[in-house]
Amino acid sequence: MTHVSKLPSLRRREFLKRASAVSIAGTAAPWALQLATIGEAAAAAAPTDYKAIVCLFMYGGNDYGNTVIPYDATNHQAYANIRQALTIPRDQLAATALTPSLALPDGRQLALAPTMNRLKPVFDAGRLAVMLNIGPLMQPTTLAQYKAGNVPLPPKLFSHNDQSSLWQSSRPEGATSGWGGRVADQFLASNGNATFSCINVSGNAVFMSGGQAVQYQMSSGGAVAINGANRSLFGSAACAEALRGMITGERQHWMEQELNRVTARSVNAQGTITTALSTSTLQTPFETNGNGLAAQLQTVARLIGARASLGVKRQVYFVSIGGFDLHDNLMSQQPVLLGNVGSAMASFDAALVELGVAQNVTTFTASDFGRTLSSNGDGSDHGWGSHHFVMGGAVKGGRFYGTAPTVAVSGPDDVGQGRLLPTTSVDQLAATLALWMGVPAADLPGILPGIVNFTQKDLGLFAA
User: Fold this and answer.
1) pTM here?
2) Which residue among 11, 285, 445, 464 is least enclosed by CB atoms within 10 Å?
3) pLDDT at residue 243 in the model
């Protein structure tokens, strides 16, 4: 096999590319191969400040109808007539009714789900915006075009896997990179330690994988260590040292050498993360008991607090919460889930204010899809467009973005059963966030190929 060690550099580079792809797909040992390749160049100018975006993904397809709810009497009655047993009574919405800085037309009023009450002060303070009727689109699409089938549509509408992939990557299931990772690609050369450009605190997500950027996977409890390599093994420090030598030492065969280099980087990264977290403290309380999302965001806040020791100027984070596929038990389960989201986001906002970086971090929510406005009796079914949140000190919050849909089944925004035809594209939100991070406008099509189909590429979420 000696001829293998003499493979040309092109073959070696292909191996590294494939090794990176293996890590993107996810493994039982996230330390292995996840640090395989780091980019050599960035198109964006080297930043002098710090910025981060945080994707909060709600897996399962969150029900928009009971998240941002019609509050004015006319539209609440229309909502109640459609939702029937899924209706949240109007008197329960008074405490979360929103008063935006720019009123909606025709006297429209909206309220947050009652259990998201902790987000109302963030909205009132101007650090939270509500995105109305957003979802994946190939190009701006009218209901007439949808019905005629004469425009390209997102593939496999209403499918969990495909629509989740479209939200995260702008491509259907099977995509190997996401737009968060592709944004990070632009800044790898600017980060002193490119390993920490993309940090996933909830497992693995295509959103975080770039052409060159590789997500660093960890848990809310900290970095995932290689057992036996960082502590006594079989009661012997010598055994642990021998293991470290075996898995990180120099090798003759190029494949073994590269694997050991990746492992050594993982060992070093685990040490860096552990040290960073040990020196980063917060006074802001997070209600983590029974709320894994809060624990994830608490860890993200602590990592942001330790950004200098991590050697980063631009970062992308990913956190998630599951359980939103509520065909049944929607009225008992969604309020708990939304309460966890609202509590976690509010604490995260407060922590960023405490750290003095609220202006530097933008958090946005996402989900597979919205759901039907019509009730199936005990829940709602798969839909398309939905309402989402964008939060941060740099956000022009306290207002709504996009177009409020008509509260009706078989209305002008409905493709069936109250499934919303999006009026704002995920690509437009992604482009807006990329521009805020410092990506040159000319480079947007490389990150979001479909953005060329939209005239408005910047939604105006941030002050110029």
Assistant:
1) 0.88
2) 464
3) 61
d(CA 402, CA 387): 10
| Domain harbouring 172, CATH code | 3.40.720
- List, in sequence order, every residue forming a beta bridge with 198; answer none if it has no partner: 316
Whether 458 maps to a domain, the answer reads no
Confidence of residue 172 (pLDDT cuts 50, 70, 90): confident
Q: Give me the pLDDT at residue 231, please.
A: 63
354 with 339: CB under 8 angstroms?
no
pLDDT in tens, 103-131: 999 999 999 999 999 999 999 999 999 99
Tally of structural domains, the chain: 1
- Domain that residue 374 falls in: 4-225+254-453
- Residue 115: which H helix or E strand, with range? none
Specify whether the CB–CB gap between 116 and 341 falls below 8 A.
yes
The residues, any chain, with a CB within 8 Å of residue 447's CB and separated by 6 or more, are 179, 182, 183, 185, 186, 430, 431, 434, 439
Cβ–Cβ < 8 Å for 405, 431:
no
236 in a domain, yes or no?
Answer: no
Mean of pLDDT values over 333-354: 98
Task: Kindly indicate the confidence band of residue 235, based on its pLDDT and cuts at 50, 70 and 90.
Answer: low
Nearest to 68 by CA among 29, 35, 96: 96
Helix (H), strand (E) at residue 367: strand 361-367
Q: Strand, helix or coil at 26? A: coil
Cα separation, 187 vs 25, whole angstroms = 23
> In the predicted model, what is the mean pLDDT of the chain?
88
DSSP secondary structure, 130-176, as one string: EEEEEE--SS---HHHHHHT-S---TTTT-HHHHHHHHHHSS-TT-S
| DSSP bridge partners of 217 | 200
Phi/psi class of residue 235: alpha, beta or left (left: φ > 0; alpha: ψ in -120 to 50)? left
Helix ranges restricted to H, 323-451? 330-355, 426-437, 444-447
Query: Which residues lie closer than 8 Å to 291 by C-beta, 6 or more apart?
Result: 340, 343, 344
Is residue 266 situated within a structural domain? yes
User: Does residue 20 belong to any structural domain of this protein?
Assistant: yes
Percent of residues, the chain, with pLDDT higher than 70: 84
